[in-house]
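A brief tutorial aside. Many learners find it easier to grasp structure tokens once they have seen a single protein encoded end to end. The record that follows does exactly this for Transmembrane protein. Read the sequence first, then the structure, and try to relate runs of similar tokens to stretches of the chain.
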Amino acid sequence: MSDLPTSGPSLRMISMIVYGLFALGFVTSGLFTFATLAAVIIMYVKRADAAGTLYATHFDWLINTFLWSLLWLALSFLTMFIGIGWLGLIATVVWVLYRLIKGFLLLLDGKPIVV
């Protein structure tokens, strides 16, 4: 049975979907948080399949973006009480948007993320 062709979406399509879900959750300011969480779950599930391909770099890029943005958003919210949290919030939003756009454009070009 191992000779049967695998069916389902390609890693490229999955990567595009993951970028879209991540962006949907982020751009709606958490209204569709489930979309971002679904993207992270999909990335962890498909990570082994993507190992050794250019898509693995995109999954790592988005997982790191998600984890770091959680940290920076939490710190921003904590520091809003002393008035500097808004700066952190704005910086985090700009940083995440940059990473989403850069990663998606590289994905469209068929290039890996090189840090």
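Self-check: Residues 79 and 85 are 4 Å apart (CA to CA). If you spotted this yourself, you are ready for the next section.
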